[in-house]
Amino acid sequence: MSTNKNSYENRNLSDVFKELQDMRHLSKIGQASDRQNEYFNAQKTSNVDSSISNAKRKYKSDDLKLSHIITGCSILIVSLALFFPKDISFGKSYAKVDSTEEISEYELNRHRLNMQNIISENADMDRVKEQDVEDRDVEFETTYTDTPTLPKGEEVVTQEGILGKDKVTVVKTYENGELVEEIILSKEKVSDPTPKLVNLGTSDFLAKQKVHIGDTMYFINADNLKETADSNSKDLAEIKSSIDVKLIDLPNEEWCKVSFDGIEGYIRSSNLTSAYTSPSIVEKNRIQRLLLKVNISMELNKTSGLTLNDYKKIFTGLPNDTNKIFENNYQSFYNAEKKYNINGIFLASIAIHESGWGTSQIAKDKNNLFGYGSYDNTPYESSYEFADYAEGIETVAKSLVKYYLNPSGTKIFDRETADGWYYNGPTLSGVNTRYASDQEWHTKVFKYMELLYNRLIN
Fold first, then answer.
1. Domains of the chain: which residue ranges?
2. E strands, 86-206, in order
3. Which of 23-32, 86-95, 343-352, 388-397 has the lowest mean pLDDT?
């Protein structure tokens, strides 16, 4: 036989499977593309099949003698019995390397790289770099300063922040029109930022009262205004309860500096309240402010500042008004005040004094609460008679305004001017000079005025 034939005959099945395993291993290395893998596997499979076919043809084509054939068959049978198990399968080999495991791993790799797709995707990417010089904002800082004259937590901006500027040279990288990278090459300062300045309130007192410096506050109890923030310092003024003051400073949480009708001094913060924390204090203050004006020298040619409800409160339930004359006519006094610009409480006090709370005979018979027109020697006969109390109240109001309370020429009601025949000042003592012969008349009338006014705070 030839050398090639002897070489082939010396190969056994383990060698054949070893070649097949090597070819499979080489095919795994070439997995870069599906087309290359398929071609490589096809070539290797073809070589194996060709080797097996050639072997068979050589065995068949050789012109062997019968003895050779018998001997060869015997050798083949013995070899099969020795080297192969009962179930002969080309899926398993007795070679040192388990080819089935490697083939299985190759067959399970379903995520092979598709080089063609990768190249295609990168070929479509638009990547651009550009250099630019631009002005950029520089953020400002915010500085907070604790401020005890502001309510706690409140902020007041004292200086607005201003952005600075930098000139920046930058390289920008874009992919498909989107910025993906930025490299700053240089930065040059154009202007510094201006910091924002903020005062931050720390006062619990102001926060609780909901007030600020300059707002109105009210005395809870009557107290003295002090010269300094010290309880032992000099008294500057006595201030009644509910009176309003202007808050002008807060030296500490214990003391407040306030202004009362132009007088500046100190009061303990614990004795101050606000309209927020004490809503009813506003109405009480209005009444107290009215009462502060009540004095024996007050001007009477002005309205009292009282409301119709105030008049109702004053005149309802007066203990000495047994016949309820004043309670039933409180609106007449209010109307006279508004129409003729006269203090209605002053007018009512004259009526109470002259009529003995409406019990005099002139008051009962003639509806004349003032003894108007009376003379000392004939008081009843000379006094005027009115249709009702309201008419008498209005008549006396006009007479006082025209002759007693205003100097001559003063414009009064209905485009008239005052005659001022008996004018000696718009006060109780001035009216007393010509209105009554009793020199203490004005003090007696003022006591009734105080009584009526004080009913506002009861």
1. 3-115, 126-199, 210-288, 293-454
2. 127-138, 142-151, 155-159, 164-175, 178-191, 196-203
3. 86-95
